[in-house]
Fold:
Amino acid sequence: MTAIGRREFLGGSFATVALAALAGCSGGATGGAAGGATVETMWWGAGDIMERTKAALTAFEEANQGVTVTSQFQSFPHYWERLTTLVASKSLPDLVEMNTLNIASYARNGQLADLSSLVSDADLEGFDQGQLAQGTVDGTLVGLSLGGNIQAMLYNQTAVTDSGGGMVPDDLTWDSFATFTGKLAKKLPSGMYAVDDGSSLFGTFEVWVRQRHDEAWTDDGKLAFTEQDVADWFRYWADLRTAGILVPPEVVAEAKQVGTNAAAPLATGKAVFALNWTNLIGQFQTLMDDTVALARVPQGDGQAGDWAHASVLASIAANSEVAQETANLITFLLTDTASLETLGVQRGVPVAAAARAELKDMGLPEHDVAQLDFYDQLLPLTRDKSVQEPSTANDVDGAFIRAAQSVTLGDTAPQAAAAAFFDEANEAVSA
Amino acid sequence: MSIAVQPKKPVRAPVPVVRRPRRRKERWLSYVFLSPWLIGFFGMTLLPMAISLYLSFTEYDVLSDPTWVGWENYRDLFSDPRYLQSVKVTLTFVLISVPLKLAFALFVAVVLNRGIRSANTYRAIYYLPSLIGASVAMAIVWRQLFTEDGVVNTVLRGLGMSDPPSWLSDPSASIWTLIFLAVWEFGAPMIIFLAGLRQVPLELYEAARVDGASRWMQFWKITWPLLSPIVLFNLVLQVIGSFQAFAPAYVISGGTGGPLDGTLFYTLYLYQQGWGSLHMGYAAAMAWVLLIGIALLTAGIFATSRRWVFYAGEDT
Structure:
């Protein structure tokens, strides 16, 4: 018999523990319980949106005995950090959330599964064609929109009514918007301004560009707008600023630093109008006592610039061993009546018109119904996107914010800021 | 896991023969006990560093394989205006916050060393910010203090300043919120200074007092020279730490380094390049330049230390 002394025993146990710890580090979870499948999912968002998602996942488990769904939630920036490290270690979860900014690069590098054979045509009935296209990369369907939204103006309806200046007109142009808000500004209580400064919002600028040109991006990811477009945009906002219509620059910059919706001028009662995505109405309404309403982004001289946008896309990892189960989960989230009600319209409205109609009768809060109604009214007027935004759009967005701030905080002339932005953006997209 | 134990065959063997295998076994065991550190050092420090060095010569977006680009990342750094801005911001931060923090820490340490009543309580209180100062929660509270209608500006207005700075939105003022936050975390160097002050022999002060030296003279002729090795230690530590400051800058600017890159710290820009734009090769090159920069600066501080650091027992 070999006696094991205390030291040897401790040493041995230690090595075992160390090895186990090492194994734990490299272990991508596989399989799951005997006989059943485990679908790993990863999401961004917290609070309400997380609770709703978890509830919908539980409902799927109950409807599909033997399938277990695990979920992780991260804040938006950390979601992408986590995802990149998981890509590096080749252990993406089965279901990943994508956005239009990143889906092309993930797909082109072979990280995402082709969904066309996993999802039936019946599941996609009535699906918005524009958003299907946003989930299609080089002809392959790799992402399904979990919710549609449109660039719009959120506004404090109570403040507009109280000012006595009448309703917000339906078909605002950029010029009539300036006139309307110019009058509004004079009637507002002190400390409240007519419009939150939107000069740094690239998403809204894209609408402005698409009113003038076909698209903001070329097919190969270069800029499809001119330096003059940018200069005109900055000048438009500079004129509103001079006219006293906008929230002062230091208030805007401070709100940007804090970065939360709760600190945004609309929520703090410092702005009446703010440009944002339609699905944000719910988040702002819960932060505010006043009623929040939606209006279309002002129009230019030519065509429509707004488009129905896939706010979040659900994709499946290319190396998923439970791709079919994951696809079933996605279609469940998109089409199951109870799941639609559970998820609500936080990520935007359901992509199929029938599902939207169904949702309207389910006794949702007023602001959710307002979002659904507004979306349905606006959808026929929008113009679908025909190009995918490049992954470098993120850097272009950063340069745009700095250029806009150099006008508001740094006394740079709009033309000079546009020139600086254009150089930086061109360099970013050609890198 | 099973453990093979060598049977000790020559039961009545002479003492040295028995001891030798035992010693070998002990050596083996020592590595087992060292293994957490060894795994940590090789697996989580040395290996990642080697990979980072390799990546700094590549273009790498994580999604696709790295491609070798030679010195391109390093060359690009010095024509990148945002990189140069981040160097400027970081140097400003280090050059202002480190001396201020050390001076403040030394001042408080000298005061607390005077055997005042409940000195221990004060020490604990003053050390507290160092424990929580670098945390995310503290940075959020800090940002709140410096908002337009925050505590700081309310006090300044109360003191009669009609137009206090817009701390968070003025590109040139925003760095100061981070400098104040850094200085406020003076506790760690203060504790080290206190320990150093305790080492100064009291007889020296007694002798100086007998000779009629003022408190100021005592400080410059006795305390400062005897404390200078501690000052050097704190200085090196703080300089290295300040170059690597990240969390407060990240939180206070919401990860942007704004307004207008006014708080774009080196590490924050590195993070933006790496995780925001997925330019991992570029970010790795930045990390190596930072490492070399800190190493050179530290070497520089050591080189000057011959002139101003006094080691007891040495002739000066």
Observations:
- The beta strands of chain B are 58-59, 67-68.
- Chain B has a mean pLDDT of 86.
- Chain B has one domain: 83-308.
- The two ends of chain B are 61 Å apart (CA to CA).
